């Protein structure tokens, strides 16, 4: 097949779940198919375009400045979001240059399939009905959960407005798309319930087993939380863990140490370390694996989110037991108590962590069960094969 793959960004540095998933799939598809990759480039990471040939036959870039979320320009985007029809999260990536690039490629080439990767570049696709929309999350659910957990009334009001706009735009895009790919049966069911008549198929979440295979490593921290620390669901989860769960753990294990490992931590996350002894905020790291290999358990304290969490499978591949909320493990076919521990209340979450920290044999059993499970079912080769079948049967541009 000759595939046009459209995304809002390039895949290096690969430090977000969506990038990891797309890279794992495209590297396998590229072995058998001709991939044309069309993305926007904000100029901050030159390696993005330079390394695109690792997963594509041809790569195309258009400039698109996306303001930092701490900047005055972003504040302006938030203000514009009060009157714009598009939700701010989508409007940030609407680009006339990107759309013209895609139109030109469609005129020049005869593609067998067009993929819109994530919802955000959808406004730049000339004809979404002839494309496959790859939804790594049900964005509407993320924004609904932001509203649920917002404490400030004005913030809740603004988030509710954005949630409504996101739902309207996502419903329109999913119903217009020739086909939709989700990353779990749970997400497919949510889409059918919220959006109605949607042509949707799901793919499993994958993991690079060889890459995460345990290796000798220096101790990092007792508990590790891995995730981009400029993404709102991770920010909320980290703050909730440190304020509500960690104190309960330390009542029984005062010496417990924690590492929060993820790129570009916002000020509220950096401030956590200043007032919490034994808490490390690493920021961007060249390799997350030593932090997994050196920990005793991985925590996924998410209250907001959608899609599926790659970090859970990566922890399992690294032979690290996991304690997660229900939202954190949503959409993953895992058995609580066997493959991981699930807890949604602070006291229960703390109890699960304390139990694992105090029982090395239990940690080893759970880690072995989990790694065997993901090894048998969730390699990137098997995930890419499912995507390949969906694209082969999908709409033609």
Overview of the structural elements:
There is one protein chain. Helices cover 45% and strands 14% of the residues. With 397 residues, it is an alpha/beta fold. It has two domains: 2-206 and 380-393, Rossmann fold; 209-377, Rossmann fold, CATH 3.40.50. It has a seven-stranded parallel beta sheet, sandwiched between helices. Strand 8, helix 10 (232-252) and strand 9 (258-261) form a beta-alpha-beta unit.
Topology:
Layout: E1 2-7, H1 17-29, E2 34-41, H2 47-50, E3 58-63, H3 72-80, H4 88-91, H5 96-108, E4 113-117, E5 132-134, H6 139-149, H7 153-176, E6 179-182, H8 185-195, E7 200-202, H9 209-212, E8 223-226, H10 232-252, E9 258-261, H11 267-275, E10 279-283, H12 289-293, E11 297-300, H13 310-317, E12 322-324, E13 341-342, H14 346-357, H15 360-377, H16 380-393
Parallel strand pairs: 1-2, 1-4, 2-3, 4-5, 5-6, 6-7, 8-9, 8-11, 9-10, 11-12, 12-13
Q: CATH top level of the largest domain?
A: Alpha Beta
Count of distinct structural domains = 2
The biggest beta sheet is recorded as:
7 strands, parallel
Quickly give the structural class: alpha/beta
Write the CATH fold name of the largest domain.
Answer: Rossmann fold
């Amino acid at each position: 097949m000759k595939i046009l793959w459209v995304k809002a960004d390039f895949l290096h540095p690969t430090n977000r779940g969506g990038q990891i998933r797309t890279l794992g799939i495209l590297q396998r598809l590229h072995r058998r198919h001709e991939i044309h990759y069309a993305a926007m480039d904000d100029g901050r990471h030159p390696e993005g375009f330079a390394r695109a040939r690792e997963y594509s036959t041809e790569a195309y870039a258009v400039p698109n400045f996306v303001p930092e979320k701490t900047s005055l320009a972003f504040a302006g985007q938030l203000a514009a979001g009060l009157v714009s029809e598009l939700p701010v999260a989508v409007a940030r990536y609407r680009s006339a240059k990107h759309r013209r690039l895609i139109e030109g490629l469609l005129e020049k080439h005869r593609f067998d399939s067009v993929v819109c990767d994530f919802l955000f570049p959808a406004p730049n696709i000339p004809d979404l009905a002839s494309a496959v929309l790859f939804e790594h999350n049900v964005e509407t659910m993320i924004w609904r959960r932001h509203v649920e957990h917002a404490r400030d009334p004005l913030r809740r009001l603004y988030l509710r407005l954005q949630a409504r706009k996101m739902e309207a735009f996502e419903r329109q895009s999913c119903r217009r798309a020739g086909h939709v790919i989700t990353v779990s049966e749970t997400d497919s069911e949510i889409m059918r319930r919220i959006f109605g008549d949607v042509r949707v198929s799901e793919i499993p979440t994958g993991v690079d087993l060889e890459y995460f295979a345990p290796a000798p490593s220096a101790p990092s921290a007792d508990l590790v939380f891995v995730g981009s620390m400029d993404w709102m669901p991770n920010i909320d989860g980290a703050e909730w863990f440190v304020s509500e769960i960690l104190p309960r753990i330390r009542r029984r294990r005062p010496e417990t140490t924690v590492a929060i490992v993820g790129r570009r931590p916002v000020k509220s996350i950096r401030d956590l370390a200043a007032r919490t002894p034994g808490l490390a905020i690493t920021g961007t790291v060249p390799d997350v694996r030593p932090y997994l290999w050196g920990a005793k358990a991985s925590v996924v304290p998410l209250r907001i989110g959608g899609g599926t969490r790659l970090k859970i499978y990566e922890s399992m591949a690294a032979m690290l037991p996991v304690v997660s909320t229900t939202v954190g493990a949503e959409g993953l076919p895992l058995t609580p108590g066997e493959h991981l521990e699930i807890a949604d209340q602070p006291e229960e979450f703390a109890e699960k962590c304390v139990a694992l920290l105090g029982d090395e044999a239990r940690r080893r059993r759970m880690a072995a069960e989990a790694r065997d499970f993901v090894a048998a079912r969730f390699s990137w080769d098997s995930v890419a094969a499912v995507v390949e079948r969906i694209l082969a049967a999908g709409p033609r541009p």
